[in-house]
Specification:
Elements: H1 3-25, H2 30-63
Helix pairs in contact: 1-2
């Protein structure tokens, strides 16, 4: 992955963590916050990884 992609992942993961922390501070139960946090982080990271893989595959097919 390129540096801008990694930077974007760090920013998005930080935002997700901050959002879940604020939800916990406002009274959401801890097990629900942890479940939401894990699901969100997995989904965001998978989307970036799959998008990167598809982009690389498309670039390689356009070169042919």
């Amino acid at each position: 992955m390129k540096a801008p992609t990694v930077f974007l992942m760090v920013i998005v993961n930080g935002f997700v963590g901050f959002y879940c922390w604020r939800a916990y501070q406002h009274g959401m139960p801890a097990p629900r916050v942890i479940l939401d946090l894990v699901i969100s982080l997995v989904a965001v990271n998978l989307a970036v990884i799959l998008g990167s893989a598809l982009g690389q595959r498309r670039r390689s097919s356009l070169r042919k």
